[in-house]
Amino acid sequence: MSHQHDGVTKIYTDEESKGTCATHQLPIPMGWKILIQPNQIKQQTKGGIILPSKAQENEAYLTAHGEVVSIGELAYRERGTGDSWRISNKPQVGDKVTYGKYAGQKLVINGVRLLLLNDDEITSILPKGVEVTAYL
User: Fold this and answer.
1) Which of 36, 40, 73, 97 lies 20 to 30 Å from 132 when distance is taken between CA atoms?
2) Given the DSSP bridges, would you call strands 11-13 and 20-22 parallel, antiparallel or unpaired?
3) What is the residue range of 98's domain?
4) Closest of 4, 1, 41 to residue 22, by C-alpha
5) Which value, in Å, is the radius of gyration of the alpha carbons in the chain?
6) Residues 8-17, mean pLDDT to the nearest whole number
7) Structural domains in the chain (count)
8) pTM (2 d.p.)
């Protein structure tokens, strides 16, 4: 299992609700599950212009991605044998990933939105520094 309990406490925040959740308060994914903090939708531009709700809805609909927070101990292993999948790129804690729009179980912990996904619901790992935005 990969979980951020390595002595370093990280604080996860939700910009909309202003909620916070420390590493030790996060649920621990069981089996093949992966815990994700979804990307937070921008409500205003860098210049301070508040985006209309339609733009925010489009951004939410078209950008199903987030950060891997924790990984269950059986993730990316064969269901019957427990053997590791033969793929070279598996998400790690801290990676940015994409997933299906309606995938996962939605959780709110101390006001912070999280998703609990199956390992096979992750569709890609985003390269470091890449910013995903909606196209209209």
Assistant:
1) 73
2) antiparallel
3) 2-126
4) 4
5) 16
6) 85
7) 1
8) 0.80
Lowest mean pLDDT among 52-66, 67-81, 110-124: 52-66
DSSP string, the chain: -EES-SS---EEE-TTT--EEEGGGSPPPPTTEEEEEEPPPPSB-TTSPBPPHHHHHHHHHH--EEEEEEE-TTTTB-TTT-PBPS-S----TT-EEEE-TT-SEEEEETTEEEEEEEGGGEEEEEPTT-------
We report the CATH number of the domain holding residue 17 as 2.30.33.40
In this predicted structure, the answer to whether residue 42 has a pLDDT above a threshold of 90 is: no
Tokens 């420390």 locate to: 22
